[in-house]
Amino acid sequence: MGIIRRLDEQLSNMIAAGEVIERPMAVVKELVENALDAKARFIEVKIKQGGVEAIEVIDDGMGMDPQDAQLAFERHTTSKIQTKEHLFAPTSLGFRGEALPSIASVSDVILKTSKDDNGTYVHIAYGKLIQVRPHAMRTGTEIRVEGLFRKTPARFKHLKSAAYEASLIIDVISKFALSRPDVAFKLSDENKVLVNTSGTNQLLEVCAQQFGNRIARLAHEFEIEDYDFKINGLWVDPQEHRSNNKGILIFINHRIVRSWYLQKAIVEAYAPYIPSHRYPVCIINLNMDPQLVDVNVHPSKWEVRLSKEQQAFFLLVDGLSKHLRENVQPKQHILEKTQEETVSQEVLFDVNHYPSQNSFNLEVNEQETTYRHPTFPHLDLIGQMHGRYILASSEDDLYVIDQHAAKERINFELILKDLNQKPEFQDLLVPVSMDASPAFMEQFDSFKVLCTELYIECEALSHQAYMIRSIPLWLKRTDLQAFMQDLMDRFLNQEKMDQAHLRESVIATMACHRSIRFNQNLSPIEMRNIIEELAHCEQPYHCPHGRPTLVKQNAKTLWKDFER
After folding, report:
1. CATH class name, domain 204-327
2. What percent of the chain clears pLDDT 70, i.e. is strictly above it?
3. Domain 9-200, CATH 3.40.50.300 — does that match?
4. pLDDT tens per residue across span 542-553
5. Per-residue DSSP letters for 461-478?
6. What are phi and psi of 147, to 5 degrees?
7. How many H helices and E strands in the chain?
8. 351-552 belongs to which homologous superfamily?
9. CA-CA-CA-CA torsion for 553, 554, 559, 563, nearest 10 degrees?
10. 174: helix, coil or strand?
11. Which residue in 504, 186, 211, 512 sits closest to 349, CA to CA?
């Protein structure tokens, strides 16, 4: 006896906070969902030091009377669930009774709320009620959270820099704005406005604010439906594709969710129009009967489970494919001639301009006096297969070389070698402007350091754009905007990696953008050049992303296959 004890309320709330309140962004998400459920049409969020020092959420929703204002901080209390049917078919964004008491257990919270001119002030500090009194204010709610995790150091030490925590808050507010374009959102960090939407229910307008005007010009509104589901949103021309899936945003009944299955449907619809291992930019909201979706899979409801998942999958694939098939346009890419192109300067690693026969022989002769990989075979060129693979042979084996992966490896080592020295660079006569999300720009200073290491000079223009002023010569004939977009995606996706690993990943991106592609026919000279360059690599057998550059087939196996 005496081993099992009932936890006191404060400790129970702190455990519940661990399930939902992981960082400042989670606090913002819970409070904004409460504001949306209160029918707010304007929601303002103010943060200080990335939300670690202070978070304030102000809304013009229904507000609470004095009794509800106090009851909201008790466990298992909510205005959103009355019966078990409501539990399994919620029409609200949130209903956890633990949300507000959990936040109040790990922070200092002041709530000001008013309903029908009956205002209330509630102050709770780390689970302890400090004060309740009448408070005159307009209808709505204001809640301020300070000192998050100050008395729970084990959780506090896992928070990252203020800029990183702020970027997560910007990201979640941006998603709220895209899921609810009919609501005006404003986010500021110490008087610097980071997100500001009008609430006019214009999804394209919100898209332009969050993704930039260039993406918005490529975006198209669409709507598809069947008996159970109605899907609406934006699809972006396939010419705009990303290195990761961050451009795919999925909302279910206006709830921010992660759905691998629906994401797969979007990627499948885009598959005929974009390269493999690339991802489109697409925003969808799936509306359905709440009984068809289980939102209780994840404590914070990021993940959901659909009852008719396969039906929704095929509706999305077929409907989106139809819109793409009927409306997709060829990519327009005009290279304007500028004064800088007349400069007489050899471009390093330019795969679009191959050497002549004489220059090729000279290059090979020079290379033969340098390092050659000791195990790389001496190969005789046979030809090219389907514009994708180079076929070559040694004395005993047949080799199939992936021309894109091979050139990636070659470019990767050349760029890495050049960066270890000091590469030549050039100032752009006309600086290139890049649209960026407010979440990205919050971390721009760290991104700029990475660019400086790569000899790319850039500077911030606003909270949604930056400018590129100079680049190394190897980027001169690259699609600079596409390259920089990949650079931004990798930076955001690999925040936890150290700078050295991130730099290596970026160099791999550079190599990829400078490489020849699948379905590109090569001359015999160009193919021999690739084979010879690959032989001089320090690691010729895999591209920077780990894929094999060549495979071999033993001649004796072929003889057996042909019954010789």
Report:
1. alpha beta
2. 76
3. no
4. 887 777 888 888
5. EETTEEEEEEEEGGGTTS
6. 60, 40
7. 19, 24
8. MutL, C-terminal domain, regulatory subdomain (3.30.1370.100)
9. -70
10. helix
11. 512
